[in-house]
Every structure is written in structure tokens, then in C-alpha cells.
Amino acid sequence: MSSLQAPEDKQGGGNCGDPPGDLRNILVTTVLNLEPLDEDLFRGRHYWVPVTKRLFGGQIVGQALVAAAKSVSEDVHVHSLHCYFVRAGDPKVPVLYKVERTRTGSSFLVRSVKAVQHGKPIFICQASFQHTQPSPVQHQFSMPTVPPPEKLLDYETFIDQYLRDSKLKEKYSVVLNRIAAQEVPIEIKPVNPSTSSQLQKLEPKQMFWVRARGYIGEGDIKMHCCVAAYISDYAFLGTALLPHLWQYEAHFMVSLDHSMWFHTPFRADHWMLYECESPWAGGSRGLVHGRLWRRDGVLAVSCAQEGVIRVKPRVSKSKL
Fold first, then answer.
1. Using an 8 Å Cβ cutoff, are 217 and 270 in contact?
2. 112 class by beta-carbon count within 10 Å (0-12 exposed, 13-18 middle, 19+ buried)
3. What's the pLDDT at 6?
4. 19 SS3 class
5. At 28, is the secondary structure helix, strand, or coil?
6. Which residues does the annotation mark as catalytic?
7. pTM of the full structure
8. How far apart, in whole angstroms, are the C-alpha atoms of residue 280 and residue 278?
9. Which residues on neighbouring strands pair with residue 114, listed in sequence order?
10. pLDDT of the residue at 15
11. CA 20 to 30 Å from 135, out of 88, 204, 291, 299?
12. Chain-centre distance of CA 111, in angstroms?
């Protein structure tokens, strides 16, 4: 069985600019460090709760993948997962994860995970693992050309600058202040952030450089996949709302399902480019696609999500 252990504390970080003696990553040591209760039964706790006061979807996806990975051997790796969010999570109580060993074949293994609170499922997931198999059939898209993360503002500085823009502050001060106040265990650097004059011309596309805060190390490839699962849900569905922000604000927005495909090994504590786009929105739903690129141009992960998006018209403050 896979141990999926948190890495040991080490001196020095895995990223340029990491402080010496950086502690283990908060995602690994708390959020993704499940408590075993019985065979294939685990309990997960919460670290960060969004302003919606619902459980963060990325946390549930990441913890479910941790639980599934603990039921497979070290020599297999996750290649895909498909999830449904069926009820709102309660941030006041832990989540129980029950793993079912659906199939164990010679090449592929399938694990089903049910997340339960108050005796009812809030989330169901199937993860597929594969023994490494080389193939001459290989191709990928090309990574977008963007400035490196070292030349971009971090999210906190970016938000601070937005709040200094009088037009944006009037419209979005509450939202931006909430974002700034959240202790998100992810480092984010937006690529080409929009200005107030561009709000009516936004496309349903955005890109971020992202990485987990802290040092994880080489460790188990499956742990980096679990961290990426957590990261992948952050600001993802909001991509579908971008062309409409100048007219509407989100009244209710939650994920319905979430899928991921893991293509090649990567480090979740190294900068990766998260390319997000929404090809469609309608019927109070939005569809988003995402790609996580390693800095060397290798496509590491693909994602897709559909969610509920209910909006209300923006009301400008009267100048009278």
C-alpha cells in the first residue's frame, strides 16, 4: 500500500527565493494529512474556509485523492479523477472519506471515494491509477508565452493596487478586501491582470502562476498530485464570469463536478502556469477548462469543471 507520507523537514527550499529552513508545506502537514480510522476509512479536517462559509472544493478533491492513493501500491500513479459535489460541506465538522477498491487490474486500478458529513454523502469521486507504461505516441499543445513569475506581482500586492483604483474600489472593495484577508495556502501571481478600463472587454480566459506555499520536496509523486488537486479549484469557475463582471456579480456560485488528468510528474511547490478558459456558459451554469504547465513548457495536468453560476445586476452607487 502507498504510504503517502508527508516529507521530512529540510534545510533550504525547493524554489528559488524560499527562506532557509522553510518548514513543511501547510497543505501536506495539515489539510492533506488524513487521520486513519479503519481500513480504507479516513477523517479530514479543514485549514482554510472560503468567504462563502462552505467547504473549499479543492480541499475535498485533494483529501479524497489522498484517501484513494493510500489504498494502492507505491508503483502506480494517478492519471485521472472524476468528481461530483452533491451537497454543501459543513466547515464546522470533519469529513469522513470511505474508499472502495472498485478494481485492481494488471495495468489500471480504480478507487471510488465517498465523502460523508452528518451521515450523508457530500462528494463522490472515482480515481484511476496506472502502472508506468512507455509509449511512442506522444504530443501536447504549446505552452503560452508569458512573463516569468519573478517579474509579476503577487496576489496580495495586486489586490492592494486594485483597491487604490477609485473606480474598482467602488465596485469591488468588499470582494477584494475579502480575498486579501483570506489565508490561502497557495502563492498566486496573475498574468496580465485587467485594469478598470478593460472590464467591459474581458474574455473568459485568465492565467496565473501558482505554487503551494512552503517546501514539499521530491517525495511521492502522488502527494504532488493531491496538492495540485487542491490548487486546481481556486478561482477556476470564476473564469466563466469574467466577460460579465461589468454587468453582474455572483449571487451564488458552486462547483457541480470536477475532473483532472495527470500527464507527467511535476512539483506542486514549484511555479506552474495555470491557464484557464471558459468555452461556454448558460442555463445558470458555466464550463471551464484548465491546463497546468511546468516552467519548462511540459503540460503536467488538464482540468475541467462545471458549476452553478447565479448572478444579480450590479448597482452603481449614486453620485447625487
1. no
2. middle
3. 47
4. coil
5. helix
6. 233, 255, 305
7. 0.85
8. 6
9. 98, 124
10. 42
11. 291
12. 21
3 Cβ partners below 8 Å, 6+ apart? 70, 74, 220
Look up residue 291 and give its amino acid.
R
- At a CB cut-off of 8 Å and minimum separation 6, what does 229 contact? 58, 61, 62, 65, 81, 260
**Which residue has cell 495495468?**
107
Say which DSSP state 319 is in.
-
Nearest Cα to Cα of residue 15 among 142, 136, 117, 148: 148
CA distance 297 to 306: 27
In single-letter form, the type of residue at position 154 comes to D
Residue 34 has which C-alpha cell?
488524513
Q: Which residues pair with 311 in a beta bridge?
A: 250
Burial 237-250 (b: 16+ CB within 10 A, else e): bbbbbbbbbeeebb
pLDDT digits (tens, 9 = 90+) for 220-278: 789 999 999 999 998 899 999 999 988 898 989 999 999 999 999 999 999 999 999 99
- Give the model's pLDDT for residue 103: 97
Neighbour tally for 11: CB within 10 Å: 8
Dist. CA 291–CA 276, nearest whole Å? 7
**Cα separation of 198 and 191, whole Å?**
14
Q: Give the cell for residue 150.
A: 519573478
